[in-house]
């Protein structure tokens, strides 16, 4: 798994400490390493930063030791490491075994290296440009103080000024002292000798409170300049040829064996296998079961599992000859009946499922640290680690997460005396429902999907608060709701008038009167007349008269005049009732919620969809109840929804989105503020109160103000009736408060000797009349000591809040009265949601005795609740739930599980379900094995093979590079891990690939071999394949939203990443897909901004959202720090500028030119009409904007011709060179080639600069990481096809206007500038239709039959070998978003998009038009006749399915100039290589394989002829 040697240079890279000795005649090995784009820091800096990741408080004490010379005597990195471990233990910084193990694991994967590199990048790109003075060696270490640069610790004379300095705390800063004090920022290499003096001086002033002290690492002069070698990734050798992959359809004969080693001799990794043989269907069918049983029968199951999964194809025939044991099969079957189907791979850590995306060392390390913090927080309350895990995953707690029953409210108007709700229909009485059945069992009738069963019963109720002065609200009533009623939707609709303005009150009176006196029709007629006359602001007398005139007076009703209605006492009573109703349900606000069966639903544009979903879920509950006999035909069904409904609603208590509650970690709070908090006035819970009923409540309020005192009275009244509550009181005075009353009285009662504050004393205090006076100095200081507590709860002076067991409710607005009933509702809600399940779990686990008081419960409660909450919204990541489960504890582990570690001592209980016959197991098993080597880990790995297999499950060899702790070389330097493959079948055709963490972009950097086409039999004796890959970039990913537009993605907005040194470091466009964007960069400090132009005109960038999706205090910044191998995910918030609320960023500014080009005839005619030019513009459109307008954007500095291509493998790269040469031979225009970097070989990339210099073109390597949310491709060729079409809007810089894709195997015979200037007639891209003139190929023209024939309906099917893209139009149409959406939908079917890069645009051409290029733009012998060749502008060497002729043979036969170009490029290559040419000659495996395929095809044809 690892090598003890380090990578010192390119030549010594592969002096691997092999797992076995490779002799002179051993089979060749394949060796791979990966290095970062930056160098490692001095090891002491890395040790320090890694330790601070585990314990931030250790940072400055360790630096004190550094400045004392503690590490001076240690010369090697290994000595430093050992001394550092001793220091951590001796000084008590990291003493827990699991924390120390985490530290070692973090060091092994170099997790702190990006953070240090971020310091270095910040210094080079932000600090150095801001220094006024020229830097010298005399100022190697310096301090920033008061905007000046000082080069001596005594701060004698400033060396120079500092412009635009960032003295505020940056994400990678660690601060000593009071952060609000004057900052002294030291820029230093801590390994430099002079650091000692600097540190002792500056830390001393910080400790006395004079300054705050920060160290920002400066690049070290002693640091290594060789790139950092990284690990924590996988390397795969994918089998390319189908001989082994395709199953032999012949049945295995009885007694026949595969000819390979029989079971009993184990798995010998050194054994040489010439080639892989196909297995029969019978052998493949139960291969997974046999493999799992084989593993469990071995002496060392974990070692066997690892060996088997990493070389599965090699050992599959051995496994096929083994029979699974009956005991394994029986236990496996019984476990599957309890949980999880066969073949599922899954990992749980302490009951939480780990998403597949997060099964990598860096995400797991972060997860384990969070878990350890959580476990330790609860463990500090006296529970053991196993107790804590059992508590967190207890069924009572997990049930609260799985319950999707929301808080309901009593939507009836009985509390207000009735007659408040204006019902639009009555399902049980109205004649339109007369034909419907009344029996509840009719609810079980079959209906179309989404349709509600028609039953004449009152079941579903929707109550809508309506402002009858609002055009939108009234339109919704008249059009939407009445339409739903008329269509017979079985929902009862009710309206309650809003009365927030005088006009609304008057309109409510008219509505109530008309509905009561003339019925629903009279009310609707009035509203329609008012809408038509647009007189809704106040009641319209004319509309009233019209409604009365046409209306029919109801029985026993008296007609009133218009003025009498407005003065009517009876009508006023109904209006008063409406006010009380809406106030009770907290709906007396702008944009109130709708109540659907008592559930509040936000009134957004999607309210009907939300209502439909809610009713659908409720219907299923009712249907279940009917089926089970819970309801009978006498039941009033809505009572089911009202059973636990609250009568009052307070949105502070239960927000519409219940995830929007604010939680505080009370264990951390106590650690930081426990001393002060313990001195605050409190009323203890009664000793007689049961522990299961305990609650801890803290009031933070300005109790000298009227609202604060009212809040205190409510709490006092509640506490008097509930002795189980411990109540803590903290006064939060206004900033300018001079007088006090209740706060003084409270302290007076609280500090009386020998008298505790009691509930009775508090009730007496709040009953007294306020007596304002100047507070005593000691009392002012007492309350001032609580300011850090108020800051911890994010409260400003004078604000009020209540904290219940760690849940903060507030700030509570002064105008909102929080009554005793509200307190009861809050605590009842918390009891049902959180407190009662926790109490039940503690009781059932017999842990209640560990609690000494309500505050202990509050600490545990807050930690348990925090562990269940994720900040990432659903859909953005394929994240698993935070739900903890324990069902797997019922699995039997005797015959099917591998167990490692001590469960009683474990902080991390890892349960894994692994199917050994899967490619996922190849990655997960080595990771799990490494984790199991760490302290504090208990692993139980269950083998869960799939019952039956239809195809060979694993088609690759695999190595994962990971270790639990650092290793060192013989010279004491840090060791590196490299992948080594030995014993690989020599005849297998392989493709080398990298399986890296989601945020990494890697590309091959050094290798003379074709890594896409490896065949070991072609290598000379004693030759290995060596490859170095580069970690080119780490991603900054973003999911942005337009907060003005309800959080919709601001698709099309353009964003720029900048540094102080480079204001336009990178740019990209925001996708409609989840508001996604990405920047490819490396660790450092950056700023994100909107690109100038349309994006800046429409939007403001309010925040980069670096702290998470939910806005947080202090995140109003556009700065980003990338300081982790995990990358960075940000959630930018954009808002629209005034007047731009409906502007489309994808639509250019309206000038006459842009109207003509982009808007179409109708809008242009209107535009010209504004100018008084009344004529048809069609002729003008034909001419375009060139006649009367100019381009709105200035053309950038890009070349005249921009050609984009991609190649994989040395053969196609050879043809790519020839394609480039053919382009250059036919043009005098400037040319730039664009290539997708990760698919190019190191050989091609090293030769490219010489080609560019020889022929005078520019080139750029581009790339884009396949987004995590977009369905990926596993086969490399299909991945390449995806890159050709899916990311055209984001692959290139935003100033590139047009790009041409040309396949690598093409020859150009024309000036490609013709295609640049070709008119695409408004289409975003142009493709050439498939050739139709070679008649003998008719049977192969798939697009003329079946699906494509019926789909295209006469339109051409286009080939993707050549196409031109108008990137401006492409982005304006959001074509990239639309292509990705369609791809994601179609690719769910693995059989669709067989030719992805062609099928997708052709499938979309009815919605995303393709301009058909003239046929001469692409000629291909397979589809086009020989006669057409003379006119061809490009020639493509597309495959011939009939002959399988190799491409090189065809090129030489068909294209005379091809050989000339090939020789010309070859001559250049020889000049560049010089004498190395012969040494580095390698066999072109790809070309040989094409010849092999041709021979095979010829042999098949001969057999057929015979």
UniProtKB/TrEMBL annotation:
Gene3D superfamilies membership: Spore Coat Polysaccharide Biosynthesis Protein SpsA, Chain A
Localization per record: Endoplasmic reticulum lumen
Keyword list, A-Z: Endoplasmic reticulum, Glycoprotein, Signal, Transferase
A GO CC annotation given for this chain: endoplasmic reticulum lumen
Region called Disordered, residue ranges: 248-271, 1473-1506
Any Gene Ontology biological process: ERAD pathway
Essential cofactor(s): Ca(2+)
Single GO molecular function: UDP-glucose:glycoprotein glucosyltransferase activity
Keyword Signal: yes
PANTHER family: UDP-GLUCOSE GLYCOPROTEIN:GLUCOSYLTRANSFERASE (PTHR11226), UDP-GLUCOSE:GLYCOPROTEIN GLUCOSYLTRANSFERASE (PTHR11226:SF0)
Full protein name: UDP-glucose:glyco protein glucosyltransferas-like protein
Source organism per UniProt: Ampelomyces quisqualis (Powdery mildew agent)
């Amino acid at each position: 798994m690892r090598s003890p040697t380090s990578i010192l240079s390119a030549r010594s890279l592969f002096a691997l400490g092999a797992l076995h000795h490779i002799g002179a005649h051993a089979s060749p090995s394949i060796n791979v390493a990966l290095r970062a784009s930056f160098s490692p820091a001095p090891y002491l800096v890395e040790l320090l930063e890694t330790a601070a990741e585990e314990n931030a408080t250790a940072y400055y004490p360790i630096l004190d030791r550094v400045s004392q010379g503690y590490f001076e005597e240690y010369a090697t990195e290994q000595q430093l490491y050992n001394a550092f471990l001793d220091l951590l233990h001796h000084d008590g910084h990291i003493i827990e075994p699991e924390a120390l193990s985490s530290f070692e694991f973090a060091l092994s994967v170099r997790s702190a290296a990006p953070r240090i590199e971020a310091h270095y990048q910040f210094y080079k790109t932000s600090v150095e440009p801001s220094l006024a003075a020229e830097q010298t060696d005399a100022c190697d270490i310096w301090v920033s103080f008061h905007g000046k640069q000082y080069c001596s610790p005594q701060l004698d004379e400033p060396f120079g000024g500092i412009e635009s300095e960032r003295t505020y705390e940056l994400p990678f800063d660690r601060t000593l002292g009071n952060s609000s004090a004057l900052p002294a920022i030291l820029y230093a290499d801590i390994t430099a000798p002079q650091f000692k003096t600097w540190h002792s001086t500056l830390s001393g002033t910080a400790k006395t409170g004079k300054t705050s002290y920060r160290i920002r690492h400066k690049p070290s002069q002693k640091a290594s300049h060789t790139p950092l070698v990284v690990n924590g990734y996988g390397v795969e050798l994918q089998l390319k040829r189908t001989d082994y992959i395709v199953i032999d359809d012949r049945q295995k004969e009885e007694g026949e064996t595969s000819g390979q080693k029989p079971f009993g001799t184990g798995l010998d990794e050194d054994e040489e296998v010439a080639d892989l043989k196909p297995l029969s269907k019978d052998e493949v069918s139960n291969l997974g079961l046999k493999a799992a049983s084989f593993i469990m029968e071995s002496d060392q199951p974990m070692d066997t599992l690892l060996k088997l999964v990493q070389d599965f194809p090699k050992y599959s025939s051995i496994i096929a000859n083994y029979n699974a044991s009956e005991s394994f099969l029986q236990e496996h079957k019984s476990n599957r009946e309890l949980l999880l189907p066969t073949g599922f791979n899954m990992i749980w850590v302490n009951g939480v499922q780990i998403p597949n995306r997060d099964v990598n060392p860096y995400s797991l390390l972060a997860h384990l640290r969070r878990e350890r913090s959580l476990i330790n927080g609860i463990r500090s309350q006296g529970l053991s680690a196993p107790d804590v895990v059992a508590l967190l995953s207890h069924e009572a707690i997990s049930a609260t997460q799985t319950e999707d029953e929301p808080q309901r409210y009593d939507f009836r108007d009985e509390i207000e005396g009735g007659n408040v709700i204006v019902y639009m229909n009555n399902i049980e009485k109205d004649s339109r429902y007369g034909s419907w059945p009344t029996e509840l069992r009719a609810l079980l009738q079959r209906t179309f999907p989404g349709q509600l069963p028609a039953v004449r019963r009152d079941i579903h109720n929707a109550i809508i608060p309506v402002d009858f002065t609002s055009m939108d609200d009234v339109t919704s009533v008249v059009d939407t709701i009445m339409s739903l009623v008329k269509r017979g939707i079985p929902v009862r609709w009710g309206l309650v008038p809003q009365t927030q303005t005088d006009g609304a009150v008057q309109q409510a009176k008219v509505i109530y009167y008309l509905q009561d006196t003339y019925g629903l029709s009279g009310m609707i007629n009035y509203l329609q007349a008012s809408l038509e006359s647009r007189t809704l602001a106040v009641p319209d007398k004319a509309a009233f008269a019209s409604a009365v005139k046409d209306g029919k007076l109801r029985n026993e009703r008296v007609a009133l005049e218009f003025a009498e209605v407005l003065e009517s006492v009876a009508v006023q009573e109904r209006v008063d009732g409406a006010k009380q109703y809406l106030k009770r349900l907290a709906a007396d606000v702008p944009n109130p919620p709708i109540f659907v069966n008592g559930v509040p639903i936000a009134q957004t544009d999607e309210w009907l969809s939300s209502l439909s979903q809610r009713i659908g879920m409720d219907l299923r509950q009712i249907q279940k109840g009917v089926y089970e006999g819970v309801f009978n035909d006498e039941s009033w069904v809505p009572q089911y929804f009202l059973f636990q409904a609250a009568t009052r609603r307070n949105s502070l208590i239960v927000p519409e989105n219940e995830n929007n509650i604010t939680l505080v970690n009370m264990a951390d709070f106590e650690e930081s503020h426990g001393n002060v908090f313990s001195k605050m006035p409190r009323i203890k819970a009664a000793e007689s109160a049961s522990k299961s009923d305990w609650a801890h409540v803290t009031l933070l309020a300005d109790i000298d103000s009227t609202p604060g005192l009212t809040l205190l009275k409510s709490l006092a009244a509640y506490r008097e009736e509930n002795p189980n509550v411990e109540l803590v009181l903290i006064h939060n005075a206004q900033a300018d408060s001079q007088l006090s009353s209740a706060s003084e009285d409270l302290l007076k009662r609280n500090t009386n000797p020998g008298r505790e504050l009691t509930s009775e004393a508090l009730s007496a205090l709040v009953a007294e009349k306020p007596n304002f006076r100047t507070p005593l100095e000691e009392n002012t200081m007492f309350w001032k000591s609580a300011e850090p507590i108020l800051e911890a709860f994010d409260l400003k002076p004078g604000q009020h809040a209540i904290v219940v067991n760690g849940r903060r409710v507030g700030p509570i607005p002064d105008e909102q009265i929080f009554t005793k009933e509200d307190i009861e509702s809050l605590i009842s809600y918390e009891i049902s949601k959180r407190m009662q399940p926790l109490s039940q779990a503690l009781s059932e686990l017999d842990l209640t005795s560990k609690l000494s008081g309500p505050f202990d419960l509050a600490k545990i409660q807050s930690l348990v609740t925090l562990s269940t909450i994720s900040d990432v919204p659903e859909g953005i990541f394929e994240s698993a739930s935070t739900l903890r489960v324990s069902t797997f504890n019922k699995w039997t582990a005797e015959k099917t599980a591998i167990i490692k570690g001590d469960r009683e001592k474990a902080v991390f209980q890892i349960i894994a379900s692994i199917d050994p016959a899967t490619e996922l197991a190849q990655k997960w098993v080595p990771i799990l094995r490494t984790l199991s080597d760490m302290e504090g880990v208990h692993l139980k790995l269950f083998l869960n093979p799939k019952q039956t297999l239809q195809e060979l499950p694993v088609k690759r060899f695999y190595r994962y590079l990971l270790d639990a702790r650092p290793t060192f070389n013989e010279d004491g330097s840090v060791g590196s891990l490299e992948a080594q493959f030995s014993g690989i079948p020599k005849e297998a055709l392989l493709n080398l690939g990298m399986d890296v963490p989601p945020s990494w972009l890697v590309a091959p950097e050094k290798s003379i071999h074709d890594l896409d086409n490896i065949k070991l039999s072609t290598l000379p004796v004693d030759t290995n394949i060596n490859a170095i890959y580069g970690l080119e970039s780490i991603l900054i990913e973003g999911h942005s939203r337009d907060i003005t537009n309800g959080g919709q993605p601001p698709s099309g907005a353009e964003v720029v990443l900048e540094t102080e040194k480079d204001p336009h470091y990178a740019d990209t466009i925001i996708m409609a897909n989840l508001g996604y964007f990405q920047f490819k960069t490396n660790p450092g400090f950056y700023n994100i901004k909107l690109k100038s132009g349309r994006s800046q005109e429409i939007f403001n960038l309010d925040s980069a959202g670096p702290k998470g999706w939910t806005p947080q205090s202090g995140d109003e910044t556009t700065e980003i720090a990338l300081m982790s191998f995990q990358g960075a995910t940000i959630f930018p918030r954009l808002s629209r500028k005034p007047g731009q609320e409906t502007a489309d960023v994808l639509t250019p500014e309206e000038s006459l030119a842009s109207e003509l080009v982009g808007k179409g005839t109708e809008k242009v005619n209107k535009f010209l009409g504004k100018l008084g030019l009344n004529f048809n513009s069609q002729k003008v459109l034909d001419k375009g904007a060139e006649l009367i307008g100019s381009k709105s954007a200035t053309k950038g500095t890009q070349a005249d011709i921009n050609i984009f291509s991609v190649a994989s493998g040395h053969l196609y790269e050879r043809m790519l060179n020839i394609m480039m040469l053919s382009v250059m031979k036919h043009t005098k225009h400037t040319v730039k080639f664009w290539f997708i970097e990760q698919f190019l070989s190191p050989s091609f990339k090293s030769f490219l600069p010489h080609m560019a210099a020889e022929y005078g073109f520019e080139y750029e390597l581009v790339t884009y990481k396949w987004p995590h949310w977009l369905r990926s491709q596993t086969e490399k060729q299909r991945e390449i096809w995806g890159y050709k079409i899916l990311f055209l809007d984001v692959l290139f810089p935003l100033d590139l206007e047009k790009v041409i894709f040309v396949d690598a195997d093409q020859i150009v015979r024309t000036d490609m500038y013709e295609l640049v200037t070709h008119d695409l007639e408004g289409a975003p891209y142009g493709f050439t239709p498939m050739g139709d003139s070679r008649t003998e190929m008719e049977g192969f023209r798939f697009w003329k039959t079946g699906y494509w024939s019926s789909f295209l309906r006469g339109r051409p099917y286009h080939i993707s070998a050549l196409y031109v893209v108008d990137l401006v139009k492409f982005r304006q149409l959001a074509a990239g978003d639309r292509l990705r959406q369609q791809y994601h939908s179609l690719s769910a079917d693995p059989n669709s998009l067989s030719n992805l890069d062609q099928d997708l645009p052709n499938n979309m051409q009815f919605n995303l038009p393709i301009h058909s290029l003239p046929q001469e733009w692409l000629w291909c012998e397979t589809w086009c006749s020989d006669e057409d060749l003379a006119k061809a502008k490009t020639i493509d060497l597309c495959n011939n399915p009939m002959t399988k002729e190799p491409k090189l043979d065809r090129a030489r036969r068909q294209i005379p100039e091809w050989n000339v170009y090939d020789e010309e490029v070859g001559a250049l290559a020889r000049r560049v290589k010089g004498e190395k040419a012969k040494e580095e000659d390698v066999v072109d495996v790809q070309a040989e394989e094409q010849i092999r395929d041709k021979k095979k095809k010829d042999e098949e044809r001969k057999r057929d002829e015979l």
